[in-house]
UniProtKB/TrEMBL annotation:
This is ABC-type quaternary amine transporter. It comes from the Bacteria. It comes from Streptomyces sioyaensis. Pfam families: ABC_tran, CBS. PANTHER family: OSMOPROTECTANT IMPORT ATP-BINDING PROTEIN OSMV. The keyword Transport applies. Keywords: ATP-binding, CBS domain, Nucleotide-binding, Repeat, Transport. One of its GO terms (cellular component) is membrane. Its EC number is 7.6.2.9. The lineage of its organism: Bacteria, Bacillati, Actinomycetota, Actinomycetes, Kitasatosporales. NCBIfam families: proV. GO terms for biological process: glycine betaine transport. Residues 251-313 form the CBS domain. Residues 2-237 form the ABC transporter domain. SMART domains: AAA.
Length: 386
């Protein structure tokens, strides 16, 4: 969708902002440009909508050289989100959001209808917030309006310059999650500038790590963390890159273990006898469809009447199979659990232990990890949560 061919930007005083950039952004891909201040990442993004023109080289969008496109028309076909949102203070939230559709010729009623849809999509009820002015919103709410406005005309390309940098860490986390949810639905082609490597890793399908005016490495977050291309990249991503790797490593079903289990409708006495025969102190409780209903220990079943269902305890330590190793590790620490259940919806798939988490992480770092690390049964036999 976006292609840079040997692009250089040199200013009259001799300063070279970017030097010989060549890279591509695929359709529907979210690429983060990350690096220190003054490295050229914002200049790169601003050349895409011709707020800055390159000195040399060619930039094409959807196969067309943007040098031959009227800058105003080009910008109206791209969403643009900046750190301070750039909302018009004298216009309501609804009218701010409808700005680009109106400029491109939409009738006002249709533009406002589209604006209301987008506000709802970013989590702002148009009936509540549509008539408010920017000064009546929190920083996080203004950022949401900025994203909604950028999406209002349904542009194929979205340019974002430090979009979440002006809010506190808690709000930033929420905005990042919300944006990832939107991107999963809308599949825009996105260039996002950030100085925060954590944000770049979390959001990007690919990351461009900038040195001074050049891209030092352009690859997936897992590859940048697991195999830095240069000493500069290794230093930039940090010595804790193995821990950062947790956030970009998804759960692999092959790493899951199957602990002892008891059926929901199984007589309590039978379940206790079987568990003791198997040497298990506790078991996960599943129904006939394989859905998780909690866990039960043999202590709860001693002399117990009825079925296991009446003695099962709630399972607190669990993650969806779509989660990351970081999610699993965080939940494990939060609940002081010896293992964590992995679910597909409500269906129980298995458990991750500290040993299997470590094994999974090792395989992602530089290809050094191997299957076959001995798994300690003692970890699976510990009580999951109290």
């Amino acid at each position: 969708m976006i292609r840079f061919d040997s692009v250089t930007k040199r200013y009259p005083d001799g300063t070279t902002a970017v030097d010989g950039l060549s890279f591509e952004v695929g359709e529907g891909e979210l690429v983060t440009l990350v690096g220190p201040s003054g490295c050229g990442k914002t200049t790169t993004m601003m050349m895409v909508n011709r707020l800055i023109d390159p000195t040399h080289g060619r930039i094409s969008v959807d196969g067309a050289d943007i040098a031959g496109v009227d800058p105003v028309q080009l910008r109206r076909r791209m969403g643009y989100v900046i750190q301070q949102t750039g909302l018009f203070p004298h216009r309501t939230v609804l009218d701010n959001t409808a700005t680009v559709p109106v400029l491109t010729g939409w009738k006002k009623a249709k533009a406002r209808e589209r604006a209301a849809e987008l506000l709802d999509l970013v989590g702002l009820d148009p009936g509540v917030y549509g008539s408010r002015y920017p000064e009546q919103l929190s920083g996080g709410q203004r950022q949401r309006v900025g994203v909604a406005r950028a999406l209002a005309a349904d542009p194929p390309v979205l340019l974002m310059d430090e979009p979440f940098g002006a809010v506190d860490p808690v709000v930033r986390d929420r905005l990042q999650k919300e944006f990832l949810r939107l991107q999963a639905t809308m599949h825009k082609t996105v260039l996002l500038v950030t100085h925060d490597i954590e944000e770049a890793i979390r959001l990007g399908d690919r990351i461009a790590v900038y040195g001074t005016g050049r891209i030092e490495q352009y690859d997936t977050p897992a590859s940048v963390l697991g195999a830095p291309a240069t000493p500069y990249v290794a230093e930039f991503v940090g010595t804790d890159r193995a821990l950062k790797q947790l956030s970009v490593t998804t759960i692999d079903r092959a790493d899951l273990e199957r602990p002892p289990f008891a059926r929901l409708d199984e007589p309590a006495a039978e379940a206790m006898t079987r568990m003791r025969t198997e040497g298990a102190r506790w078991a996960v409780v599943l129904d006939e469809e394989g859905e998780l209903h909690g866990w039960v220990g043999t202590e709860e079943l001693v002399g117990a009447a009825g079925t296991v269902a009446g003695h099962a305890r709630r399972m607190e330590a669990w993650v969806p199979v779509t989660g990351t190793l970081k999610d699993a590790f965080s939940e494990m620490l939060k609940h002081d659990a010896g293992w964590i259940a992995v679910l597909d919806g409500h269906r129980f798939l298995g458990v991750l232990t500290p040993t299997t988490l470590h094994e999974a992480l090792r395989r992602t770092i530089g290809g050094r990890g191997e299957r076959g690390v001995r798994r300690e049964r003692a970890e699976v036999d510990s009580v999951p949560t109290q």
